[in-house]
TrEMBL record:
Belongs to the short-chain dehydrogenases/reductases (SDR) family. The keyword Oxidoreductase applies. InterPro entries: NAD(P)-bd_dom_sf, Sc_DH/Rdtase_CS, SDR_fam. It holds the Pfam family adh_short_C2. The keyword Secreted does not apply. Keywords: Oxidoreductase. It comes from freshwater metagenome. This is Unannotated protein.
């Protein structure tokens, strides 16, 4: 029977303390990997390690700080709890920014942070790890979004940044293929995050009844109407795709983007 086996491998996951990040960490640990859980919030990263004793090393990292990224990666050299150099990088850290409004109500600051976190961040972290990835014949998985496949009017900075990371994934895949490194992306569909609270409150300006329901009810109603399979995605759904792309089962897959969205965007 085909099985995902990541035993003996070291993975680094950015944004590891968020909902999708925690799901990815749990799945990779379940497949046998030792995981470096990198997050801007040191206490949150430590809590991920507590959930997986002996299998997770917490790491504080601001993916937008070039010197900080390099220092954080350097601190892992010779770490007693890591069985090998990093052979899997999951660029998961991301931010939606302000959403739920037309682009004419945004200003430059609304564009700057999503771009720095969602686009520059993966570049900085990948660049800092590229020698380890090449040494191990490793793999990079970028967490993009179906918003990068189709622009949404209520979140133009986020959609644009995710379109950029899809393009960057192809560029990295071409650049790193001669060094034996594969680069792919996963495009989540609708996963319940604070993003949908912002959307609900913004929509409530025109529909006050939305103030009377919960974020989950708003999310479930939207998912049931928009997604052919009739439900939103769970972190484990995204994590399963990441584990597949990271594994030897996908040894001939590079430069690709896999939608995990219940059919929301078919491409």
């Amino acid at each position: 029977m085909l099985q995902i086996d990541l035993n003996g491998r070291t993975a680094l996951v950015t944004g590891a303390a968020g909902g999708i990040g925690r799901g990815i960490v749990a799945t990779l640990v379940g497949a046998g990997a030792t995981v470096v859980a990198a997050d801007l919030d040191a206490d949150a990263a430590a809590s991920v390690a507590v959930d997986h004793p002996g299998s997770v090393v917490p790491l504080t990292m601001d993916v937008t700080d070039e010197a900080g990224v390099q220092a954080a990666i350097a601190s892992l050299d010779g770490h007693a709890d890591l069985p090998a150099p990093v052979s899997l990088l999951v660029n998961n850290a991301g931010i939606a920014g302000r959403t739920g409004m037309p682009f004419t109500r945004l200003d430059q600051s609304d564009w700057d942070l999503p771009w720095q976190v969602n686009v520059v961040g993966p570049f900085l972290v990948t660049a800092a790890l590229v020698e380890q990835l090449a040494q191990t014949g490793g793999s990079v998985v970028n967490i993009a979004s179906v918003s990068g496949r189709r622009g949404f009017t209520t979140s133009p900075p986020y959609s644009a940044s995710k379109a950029a990371i899809l393009n960057f994934t192809q560029g990295m895949a071409t650049d790193l293929a001669p060094r034996g490194v594969r680069v792919n992306a996963v495009c989540p569909g609708m996963v319940l995050t604070p993003f949908y609270r912002q959307q609900r409150l913004a929509a409530a300006v025109n529909d006050p009844k939305l103030l009377e329901i919960t974020d989950e009810e708003f999310f479930q109603d939207k998912a049931s109407r928009l997604i052919p399979l009739g439900r939103g995605q769970q972190p484990a759904d995204i994590a399963g795709a990441v584990a597949f792309l990271a594994s030897d089962l996908a040894s001939s897959v590079t430069g690709q983007a896999l939608n995990v969205d219940g059919g929301l965007v078919m491409s």
